[in-house]
Structures are given as structure tokens and as C-alpha cells.
């Protein structure tokens, strides 16, 4: 028995992994990761894997970066943790200052959380209580979108539109108003940016907003790309139209950039691509640089001011977590933001985005590649059994899972979303490394399709 086999055996006896069917896990030869370097992970047997998903979209600067290591070590020599309730600290203050420098105009306050779902919950509570504090007690509802994903806590799941994740928990969730989000490439009139589909979806959203305008606390959307929904890129102008609808009906505009913010789409903030200014902006994942969990909600001064009152009056925002603004996490997040500038991350992202574009015709030659969506350093390759008839692969065929397993044998870590293969490598990936990742992905899809006949 190899060292890795021994650790797999120990894992199976004691662990319960997220999003994992353990009857399958019992038979899976999963890697036990021992260390990482740059865009690569290494298992206990010495096998090397290109991290094609940035360890679930967080390792923006790659693994074992000396600057990030040093930031944590330096802070650790001072203090590992100090509560943010009744106290403050330098890393937390400095990180907030830096976030507000890159944030859209009008955002002036930062509230920290430990992960994206918690930050979404914070944004929901802020939006709800903002209207309560203003005396508009009827504004309790939220509009969200089909195929959206905002996390796995109860409030975040209530907003989510991925049925597979949420259906069993329906009795626990609160009611929302759900609007369709354009998937223009699935429009019956053909693929591409179908204007008819876009405006039909907008018309339905407009009707919802008009009918419930006096009840709505906010509209929440993932700017530009629905990530966990299948890497669905929104058509041009759609995000701006949503913002304009919010302004027209005085509804709070909430942008969930947990997955797509902080350089992933080629801008510091994804909202920049849509030319919008949210009232509440949620950041996470890459903020902690793949080192420590940290997220943040950025709010306008108008929202913040609605919570000002006398001591422990009802206006106070009664929310907080034990590790809110952990100094170690704030320090590494600060170092990550500095690396974005010093190492010219956005330039690399945009260069690699052009490289991905060049590969699309090759992927489209594969008979079951239905759609290749991409924006910045992010791509989703949707597979269909028959793309002309719009016939989906059935869940029990586990096509995405098989492609990821095939890629792992070739030296790359991928994680599918159903029948969509996701590419979201570290922002540091080189031209040569990205070519390798794309080649492995292409070969893995081809292999699985051939086996399926």
C-alpha cells in the first residue's frame, strides 16, 4: 500500500466531504495533496496537477507565494486574532481603505465576513433593515435570478436558483421573486447574443419590479457571469438595464462578486465591465488569496447612515462573527491586493483571455460541445449528447465527473458543474501553462465522448 493509499483509507473512515456522494468516494482514487507551488498541486505520491480551478476559485496568485507567506508570518509575530467587537486593528483598517479605492463610486463602508455565503447573508440583512430603519416596513422581498448561486446558508440558498442544490431544503427557505436570466445561446432562434431573448427576460423582470415595487428591498445579481449556474455570461447591456430598473423603482442594487470579483474578469471589480454602481457589493473567494477565509460587504454611506442611532437602539446592525476581520486574513488579503498591482495581474488575465478565445474553434469541433462561454480568465464548456436536438446528457451518465477524472489522470484538476466543464485557473497562469490546461481539457472531453460512443 502506498503512502497515499494509506491516507485515503484514513480519510474514508472519518471524513464527510462537501458536495460528495460517498458511495462513489469509496471507489475514487482521489489525490491527497501534500504541497503546492505556483499553479501546481502535488500529492503524497509525488504526482503533479495543474490547478485548473484555483482550488475552488480562490488561489488567485497561485500556491506558496513568498509575498503572501511573508505577510502572514509578519502578522503572526504580532497577533493572530483580535475581536472586531469593541476593538479594531491596523490590517482591518488598511484593507478596508484599499478595497474602497478600487470599488465603484459611492461605496464608502466595509463590513467583514469569513466566507461568501456569510457575506451574502449580511447584504440581505443590511438591505432588509435599511428599509425597516427608514420606516418602509413593507419592503421585505428580494428579486433574484434563475440559475443563480449565492452560497449554501439558508438565506443564500433562498436566493439561489440551482435546483439540484436547493430542492431538498425548500421547506426551510424564504420566498423570493425569481426572474429569468437570458441564456441567449439556448434561444430557439439560434445561438449567439439573441436580442429577442434578452429583451423578453428584461420585460419579465420589469413586470416583477413594477408589480412589487413597494415591497422590494433589493435585487441581487452576479455581475456579468453566473458562475455556479454553469458559467453563464450575460448579454451586453443586461446588467446596466437591471441597475436602471433599480434606480427607477428605488430598489437596492446588490452585486454578488464572490466568484467574479478581484481580477477574474479582467477588472478589479466585475461591475466595472457593466458600468454599474451597486448599493451593496459582496466580495469573497480570491480576497483571501487562497490562504485564509475572508469576505466583505461594501455599502454606500446612505445605507450606513440609516443604521445610526442611540446606543442599542433598533437601528443598530446586530450581526457579527467570532473571526470577523481576522488580522491574519486581512494581512494576506492586503498583500494580495498589492500583488494585483505590482505583478500586473489584470494584464495577464486579459492576455490569457485572448488565448482562450483562440482555442474555441478547436473545442467546437468536438460533436458534444454545445457552448463555450468565457469572460476574462474564466470559461465554461457545456456538453450535450446531441447539440442539434438540444438533448442533454442524463445525470447518471456523469459526463462532467468523467471528464474531470480523465483530466486528473493527465495532470490537471478540474471540477464540473453538471455537464459544464469549468476552467478558472490562478490569475498568474502563463501562456504555456494555460495551453497545457486547455489541451488536457480538450483531450479529456474527447476521450469521454468516444467512450460514450
Task: Describe the protein.
There is one protein chain. The protein has 453 residues and is an alpha/beta fold. A 7-stranded mixed β-sheet has the order 4-12-11-10-7-5-6, sandwiched between helices. Strands 1-2-3-15 form a 4-stranded mixed β-sheet. Helices cover 40% and strands 15% of the residues. It has 2 domains: 31-61 and 344-452, Aspartate Aminotransferase, domain 1 (Alpha-Beta Complex), CATH 3.90.1150; 69-342, Type I PLP-dependent aspartate aminotransferase-like (Major domain) (Aspartate Aminotransferase, domain 2), CATH 3.40.640.10. It has 16 helices and 16 strands.
A few lines on this structure:
By secondary structure, the chain is an alpha/beta fold.
Task: Draw up the topology in text.
Blueprint: H1 3-14, H2 22-25, E1 33-37, E2 40-43, E3 48-51, H3 54-57, H4 66-76, H5 90-102, E4 107-113, H6 116-133, E5 141-145, H7 154-159, H8 163-166, E6 177-179, H9 195-211, E7 216-221, E8 225-226, E9 232-233, H10 238-249, E10 252-256, H11 271-274, E11 280-283, E12 295-300, H12 301-305, H13 327-342, H14 345-364, E13 369-374, E14 379-383, H15 399-410, E15 412-413, E16 420-423, H16 431-452
Parallel strand pairs: 3-15, 5-6, 5-7, 7-10, 10-11
Antiparallel strand pairs: 1-2, 2-3, 4-12, 8-9, 11-12, 13-14, 14-16
Amino acid at each position: 500500500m502506498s503512502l497515499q493509499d494509506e491516507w485515503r483509507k484514513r480519510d474514508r473512515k472519518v471524513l464527510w466531504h462537501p458536495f460528495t456522494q460517498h458511495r462513489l468516494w469509496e471507489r475514487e482514487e482521489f489525490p491527497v495533496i501534500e504541497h503546492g507551488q505556483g499553479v501546481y498541486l502535488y500529492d503524497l505520491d509525488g504526482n503533479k496537477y495543474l490547478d485548473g480551478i484555483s482550488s475552488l476559485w480562490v488561489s488567485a496568485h497561485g500556491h506558496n507565494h513568498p509575498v503572501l507567506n511573508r505577510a502572514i508570518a509578519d502578522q503572526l509575530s504580532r497577533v493572530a486574532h483580535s475581536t472586531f467587537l469593541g476593538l479594531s486593528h491596523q490590517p482591518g483598517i488598511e484593507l478596508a481603505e484599499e478595497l474602497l479605492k478600487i470599488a465603484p463610486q459611492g461605496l464608502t463602508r466595509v463590513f467583514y465576513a469569513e466566507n461568501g455565503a456569510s457575506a451574502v447573508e449580511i447584504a440581505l440583512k443590511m438591505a432588509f433593515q435599511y428599509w425597516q430603519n427608514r420606516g418602509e416596513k413593507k419592503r421585505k422581498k428580494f428579486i433574484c435570478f434563475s440559475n443563480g448561486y449565492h452560497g449554501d446558508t439558508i438565506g443564500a440558498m433562498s436566493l439561489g436558483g440551482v435546483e439540484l442544490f436547493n430542492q431538498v431544503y425548500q421547506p426551510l427557505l424564504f420566498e423570493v421573486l425569481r426572474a429569468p436570466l437570458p441564456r441567449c445561446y439556448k434561444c430557439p432562434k439560434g445561438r449567439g447574443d439573441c436580442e429577442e431573448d434578452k429583451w423578453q427576460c428584461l420585460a419579465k423582470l420589469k413586470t416583477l419590479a413594477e408589480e412589487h415595487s413597494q415591497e422590494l428591498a433589493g435585487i441581487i445579481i452576479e455581475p456579468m457571469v453566473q458562475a455556479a449556474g454553469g458559467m453563464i455570461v450575460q448579454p451586453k447591456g443586461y446588467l446596466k438595464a437591471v441597475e436602471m430598473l433599480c434606480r427607477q423603482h428605488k430598489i437596492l442594487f446588490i452585486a454578488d462578486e464572490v466568484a467574479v470579483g478581484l481580477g477574474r474578469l479582467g477588472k478589479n471589480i466585475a461591475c466595472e465591465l457593466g458600468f454599474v454602481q451597486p448599493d451593496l457589493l459582496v466580495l469573497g473567494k480570491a480576497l483571501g488569496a487562497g490562504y485564509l477565509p475572508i469576505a466583505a460587504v461594501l455599502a454606500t454611506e446612505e445605507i450606513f447612515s440609516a443604521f445610526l442611532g442611540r446606543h442599542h437602539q433598533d437601528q443598530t446592525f446586530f450581526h457579527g462573527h467570532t473571526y470577523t476581520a481576522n488580522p491574519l486574513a486581512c494581512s494576506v488579503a492586503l498583500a494580495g491586493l498589492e500583488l494585483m498591482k505590482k505583478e500586473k495581474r489584470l494584464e495577464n488575465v486579459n492576455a490569457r483571455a485572448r488565448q482562450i478565445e483562440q482555442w474555441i474553434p478547436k473545442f467546437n469541433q468536438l460533436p458534444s460541445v454545445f457552448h463555450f462561454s468565457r469572460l476574462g480568465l474564466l470559461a465554461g464548456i457545456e456538453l450535450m449528447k446531441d447539440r442539434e436536438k438540444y438533448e442533454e446528457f442524463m445525470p447518471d451518465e456523469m459526463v462532467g465527473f468523467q471528464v474531470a477524472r480523465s483530466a486528473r489522470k493527465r495532470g490537471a484538476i478540474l471540477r464540473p458543474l453538471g455537464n459544464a466543464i469549468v476552467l478558472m485557473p490562478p490569475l498568474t497562469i502563463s501562456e504555456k501553462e494555460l495551453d497545457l490546461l486547455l489541451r488536457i481539457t480538450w483531450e479529456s472531453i474527447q476521450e469521454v465522448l468516444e467512450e460514450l460512443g
